[in-house]
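Quick one:
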Amino acid sequence: MSSLYYQGGDLASWLVFSVAVIQFLLLGNAIYNLFFHPLANVPGPFWARASGIPSWYHAMRGDRHLWLWRQFQVYGYRIRPEPNAVLFHDPNAYVDIYSMKSNVRRAPFFTAFKRVESENTTLTEIDVAKHARKRKLLALGFTDQSVRSASEFVIKHIDRWTQLITQEIQDCTNWSTPQDFSKMIDCLIFDIMGDLSFGKSFNIKEPGINRFKVIPHSITENLRFYYPICRSPFLHILLWLKPRGLNKVFELVSPPAVHEYNNFVYQSVTDRITLQRQQPERRHDMFYFLYEARDPNTGQRVYEEDELRAECSLLITAGSDTVSISLSSIFFYLTGDPQRCQKLTNEIRTTFQLAEDIVHGPVLQGCAYLRACIDEGMRLTPAVASEHPREVLTGGLRILGEYYPAGTIVGTVPWASSRDQAVYGDDVEEFRPERWIVDVSPGGTTKEDLVRYKSGFHPFLSGPGGCIGRHIAMMEMTLIIARTLHRLDVRRAPGSTLGGGRPGLGWGATDKTQLHVEDAYVSLRCGPEVQFRKRIL
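Output:
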C-alpha cells in the first residue's frame, strides 16, 4: 500500500515538474520572440509578436483578414502578426515577394492542406522545382483550345440556369421570388465545374431532391476544418506528425461533411476514368486534357490516378469558389447601385442583338464596362482574403529595401490591399467600375491612375504562384453576367440586407453596403438576396 502511495506521489511530482518545464519553455520562447528574434524590430500587437496564438484565434473565428487590416491601420506599411511572419501593405512589396525572381517558396501553410502524403498538388507542393514542374504539366490542360471547348459547356449551363429562373415568372411585370444569389450561383458554378472536371453535370441547380446538393456545403466545411490547422502556431509539429499517424486522427475527427466530400471526389474521378477509357474521344472537357496530358520529355501520361483525384479536387474547389465569390460580389454591388447596374445592362444589350450571340471571343472581351465591373467586384471581395504566405529561402530577401532572413514568412494581404487609400483614393470602399476605364474628362481616370490601380490589384496572383485557370474563370464570369443581364432584369429584394455588414460582427464588418465574408482561406459569404424579371422589350 505504501509502495503504491509513493509511486502515486512520484507521478504527481513528475507531472508538476513537467508542467513547470513547459511553462518555463513557453515563457522563454515568448521572451525570445519579443526581444531577441531577428524580427523583433517589426511592429505588431504585443501578444502576436510573442506567440502565433492570436493569429490562429482569428483564423478560427473567420475574421483574420479584418484583424490584419486593422493592424496595418495601427502600425503602418508592415506588421508582424506572428513571431516569424511579416506582412506588407504596399504595391512595391507585392512585386518584391511574388515576382518570378523572388527568393521565396510557398510556405509550409500549404502543405497542411494535404489529406494524405500521396495527394500532392500544385497547391500543396512547396518545393520550388517540383512546383514549377507540376504547374508546367497542369498548364497542358489549360490551353486556348481547352478554354474554347469549355465555353460550350458553360453556355449550356447558363442557358438552363436562366430558363429555370424564368419558369416561375409569368410576364415582364412580375419579379421572381427573392433568393440568396450566393446559393444560386454556387449551384450553377458547381454544375459547370463538375461537367468540366468530372465529365458530367451533377444538376444541383435543378429543382427537386438530389444527393449532390450538399456537396458545396461539404466543400465549405472541408475548408473550415483544414484552415485553422494550416494556421496553427504548432504547424511544424503537426506537419512532422501527419505522416506518422496524425493524418489518421484527422480522418477520425473530421466532420461528416469532410468525409462526404472526399468520397464524392474519389467516386467521381473513378467514374470519369472508366468513361475515358471506354470512350476516349467522347468529349473534350478539362478532365480529357488532364487525362491525356503527356510529359513532353518521356511521352508518358502526366498523372497517375491518385494525382488526378487530388488535382480534380483542387480544380473543383478553386474553380468553384473563385468564380462564385467574385460573382456574388459583383451582383451584391450592382444590385446595391441600380444606375450602374443599368449602365452595364445597356452595354450588353446594345452590343449583342440576341443572347445567343454572346459567346467567348473578342466582342465579349471588348465590353469595357463589363470588364470594369468584374475587376471592381474582385477588388472589393478578393477570393482569398488573407495572405498567400511565402517562405524566404537561403540568402534572404530584400523587401522595400529592408533585409529579411531565410525562414521568414512574408506576404501581402489582398483584403487590406484592396482598401489602400494611397492606391485607390478616398472612395476606396465605393463600388466604382469607372475607375478601371481611362477618361480624359475632368475627374476621370488618367493613364497614371490606372497604372497605380493595377499595381495593387492581383485577383489571380502573379509570378510562379499565379492562377493557371484565370482565363477559364474570366470566360465563365463574362458569359454568366452577359447572358443573364441580356435576358433578365435584376434587383435587390426590397429591404433586404443579406450579405452586408451589420452591428455585432465586429470592427470592419458593420457597413451594410459592404459584402461581408468569412476567412477560411477562400472568402465564404452569403447574399445578396435578389429578384429577377423577364426583360422588357
